[in-house]
DNA sequence: CAGACCGCCTAACACGTTTTAATAGAGACC
DNA sequence: GGTCTCTATTAAAACGTGTTAGGCGGTCTG
């Protein structure tokens, strides 16, 4: 019914369909007067290019896929906002897929991306198996890893040094004088969790302490606030509360905080608490949360830039693995200044772009 | 290069391309043994259907578009999660667009949707102008409004009664005994803000009070925490703090809370504070936030169900305007029970599906 | 046993766009 | 006036899939 094609535009403008196509894609090849006549016809008929036909003929689309592990986590929506801003500036649309951290949903997302013949894919993989991604690349779909390092020279990645982040966090806790630390991690398949835990161990070793006796690792089934709260409740029931708890992300930490406070456990008085990511809500929580800040929005931006550069000219493109350095943010939950001190946090609680990181926080490899 | 088409599958399976197509789309029409032979060939070659060719030929795709006003607002990510779960169960992919509340980005999203020939569109419009949407519908793209009422019998919508929500909020504040209330709203073009303000006025009128003297409306340029904080700072600087502040959403309220606390203003002691949406972080904030709860995830689910029903059989489809009733949630910021009371909130702080609302909260019109 | 019917499959075209090679037309130069 | 160059346009052939009309055996029915 309603759908009007390039042919009808051509007829109205008294030119051939090919000329209409040229007006759309290479206007400089068309004489100004014809060009305007065609544009008028397009307006008049309300013509909208059929993206699928275009993709079919051109062999590729103007879309990229973005697969994240948790759409409910502000960390990932910040990344998505950064990527989308860059992509849409260059005329690309973003198809967003939520893998919810599961292998099967992730694969379903990738299948959709492949069927849609997206130009490229940004992905935070939920585990180390990159096989499906190589499958995409064989089909000519570029891939950039987000928040996951590519340990290979033929793949771009944008990450933040999670081992360093873990070190920062636990070194800070040790500075407080605590000597029994709990590490609440997410599922073991998640690299971020492992690296942050490894950094924690390094901080202990550097302080001459034995990780075995000082650090107790607890695994939550998901990296959500609910899981964090349940972990805290279990911990309280067991009667073996550590002096400090380091959580693998802020959502877990906010859940733990809630569980502790509801049980009457003081933070930081009885237990010091650290999160990770520094999501915007961390500064606004019941007891403001110490955390490890990452340049989240920037992560998405750079990833999209790398991807589109690679799509634009795969031959000339030099793959890069970019690593940012995280930053410690001390707040009340580890005895830092209270919220009445206006200096606690310069960045307002918001979801808009984070300030561009200082150059010193950026380290590029290769 | 790598891309393998239906023809090569056909050759390997020694059938015609049409049969392969049938295996993909109407397997029951193909004899079991041939079917299996074709499927084997598909696996062997790693064939992936070319979505664009399929869309081109079939005239429609297996995708829906979702345009939200703020991807950084947990309210909308919850809606998106609900919609995506339903859509992907039915084999549809979701293209997510962030309009950031601006007209121009919204129109860009709709253009992308139209070019992609999505099957339908879910949208929270940023203003009252539905013209572009009718344009879509003329092209055969179904539309369902999310969190925005369709005041027409030919359009589906899923909403929550914002006027009632505003009444609930302000009636509660009046119960506390306050007689000077500030209403911090977002841009005037946003319907939700207007309706919630209207409800606030109704609550005052019902209590025999004069809205003019009791309620002072302040407009923030955006519905973010940053804007909320800045509004609070301006208010403090002006020296005219009301006894209570009702914010048009929780992000604004969290920002206001932050601004007040940093300036040493007590909540709820000096100023009572109410948000709207009851996002998961509202219960975990510095002073836990009273709010108006909406069945967010459910909103997305139902919207997607309506949309796909309409897409499936536009003839038989009866348009419906569904209205949920919101629910008051009283917490510390209006003198409710502190967080040590385990009964404050049944639902854990998390981003997973909200419990299905009780039937009494659902009211369906027409 | 003829004819109708059925299940399964194939051949061929159509979908709307992009692109390439070819064509027409207008000057410009000798 | 003829040829050459350059520009503006066109015709036609793809791209990979879905669908429709029909063909080919074989089986059932009267």
Automatic annotation (TrEMBL), chains A, B:
Annotated PANTHER family: HTH-TYPE TRANSCRIPTIONAL REGULATOR GALS, LACI-RELATED TRANSCRIPTIONAL REPRESSOR
One of the record's GO molecular function terms: DNA-binding transcription factor activity
Entry keyword set: DNA-binding, Transcription, Transcription regulation
Domain HTH lacI-type: 4-58
Residues that span the membrane, as ranges: none
Top-level taxonomy: Bacteria, Bacillati, Actinomycetota, Actinomycetes, Streptosporangiales
Region (Disordered): 333-366
Organism: Streptosporangium canum
SMART domains (alphabetical): HTH_LACI
Compositionally biased spans, kind Basic and acidic residues: 356-366
Name of the protein in question: Transcriptional regulator, LacI family
Superkingdom of source: Bacteria
Pfam families on file: LacI, Peripla_BP_3
